[in-house]
Design brief:
Elements lengths: L2 E4 L8 E3 L3 H13 L8 H10 L2 H10 L20 H9 L3 H13 L15 H14 L1 H12 L1 H45 L1 H8 L3 E5 L5 E5 L5 E4 H4 L2 E6 L7 E3 L7 E5 L11 H12 L1 H11 L5 H8 L3 H13 L3 E6 L2 E6 L1 H7 L1 H8 L1
Parallel strand pairs: 1-5, 2-6, 6-8
Antiparallel strand pairs: 1-4, 3-4, 7-8, 9-10
Length: about 375
């Protein structure tokens, strides 16, 4: 499955790399709502949660579906501003209908809400459908949907005030700490684009992002995501890439019709390995699912072995072992080193550990 952004005919100067205060704030709010997604930020999440005033915590809980499982599109600006206030001013200029539609998609959990029906603000059937979907998600979502549909300006003002209060409570300090790294990463990506082209730049954004083209001259940015979907960047003026320090491991993409496509990507961290693609994870799981390869992996977890040693240990032929080793190597699960005319194979324990501690303990048992 993948999400594609059509960039056919789009000049590369329309590709923007820049930090966004609002996008980073809502990344932080997602961390606070789903700390299990971000084990590396447990300390920050715990200390920040303890320091937030109770009244603000209650308001954040009421609205956390705006950023918990997905992000309302207006919270990830296509044209980021210099500061949070400037970006919130831009959100205020969005008409009620797209604002409400974006909020209800996250509230109701249905991207089809506004595509097959009319506007929930003017179409009674669409409005009732929105309420039903929100109620299925819980009473807080239903109450929010009712308030939003009844009085959009009042709810929009409440959301803005809440985000401003977050700025004073915890965001301003954290933003000043991470902004230099985010700005530096954006500059590096822009320089990489100018010097080496888009394909190499996208590879630097994430292993899950790539450039595809065909004989007809069409070009697409392809992103490994849960849904199959597409959007056209030429119609919306370009694509924006926003680095994030608090978004890891998520690769967030805004792609709804009418919105400028935005990709929010985690910046590289020293000592933190780059995430592998879902396809590679699947390849590794399938490689280890074979009983013979799993036995070989357990043997190589204990130390380096030659093909002949592995064949003798498990009463296999050398060609059989070589075929299984080739599968494990393509999955990135082996390291090799040469000793004279022999090649020694060893399980890459770091790669195995990233698949899970239970797997690592099992192969080392």
């Amino acid at each position: 499955m993948s999400l594609t952004i059509d960039i056919t005919g789009l000049p590369e100067e329309r590709l923007l790399f820049t930090p966004s205060p609002l996008a980073e704030l809502t990344s932080m709010l997602h961390v606070l709502a789903e700390p299990a997604h971000h084990p590396g930020l447990h300390g920050w999440a715990a200390s920040t949660t303890a320091a937030i005033p109770p009244e603000l915590s209650e308001r954040l809980l009421e609205a956390d579906f705006l950023w918990r499982s997905s992000r309302a599109d207006f919270l990830v600006p296509g044209l980021p501003g210099a500061n949070l206030a400037e970006e919130l001013d831009a959100v205020d200029r969005i008409d009620d209908e797209p604002y409400v539609a974006a909020a209800l998609i996250t509230t109701c959990g249905s991207s089809r809400l506004t595509r097959r029906l009319g506007s929930p603000l003017t179409d009674p059937v669409a409005g009732e459908r929105a309420r039903d979907l929100a109620l299925a998600r819980g009473p807080r979502q239903a109450a929010f949907a009712d308030r939003l549909l009844a009085d959009p300006p009042a709810v929009r003002a409440l959301v803005r005030r809440m985000l401003e209060d977050c700025g004073a409570a915890f965001f301003a300090d954290a933003w000043q700490r991470v902004l230099p790294d985010l700005a530096a990463d954006a500059r590096r990506k822009a320089d990489l684009l100018a010097r080496h082209g888009l394909a190499e730049t996208l590879a630097g954004v994430s292993r899950s992002v790539s450039l595809e083209g065909d004989d007809d001259g069409r070009r697409r940015i392809v992103i490994d995501k849960l849904q199959d979907n597409s959007t056209d960047a030429a119609r919306s003026g370009g694509v924006t890439f926003i680095p994030t320090a608090f978004g890891r491991p998520h690769l967030l993409v805004v792609h709804a019709r009418g919105w400028r496509p935005v990709v929010q990507y985690p910046v590289a961290e020293a000592g933190v390995p780059e995430p592998v693609s879902l396809a590679m994870v699947q390849q590794r799981l399938e490689a280890l699912a074979h009983p013979v390869r799993l036995r070989l992996a357990r043997t190589m977890a204990r130390g380096p072995h030659t093909t002949g040693e592995l064949a003798a240990a498990w009463q296999l032929t050398a060609p059989e072992v070589s075929r299984h080793l080739a599968v494990l190597r393509r999955a990135g699960l082996l390291t090799t080193r040469r000793r004279g005319r022999y090649v020694l194979y060893q399980l890459d324990l770091a790669a195995g550990a990233r698949l899970g501690s239970d797997l690592l303990e099992a192969v080392l048992r």
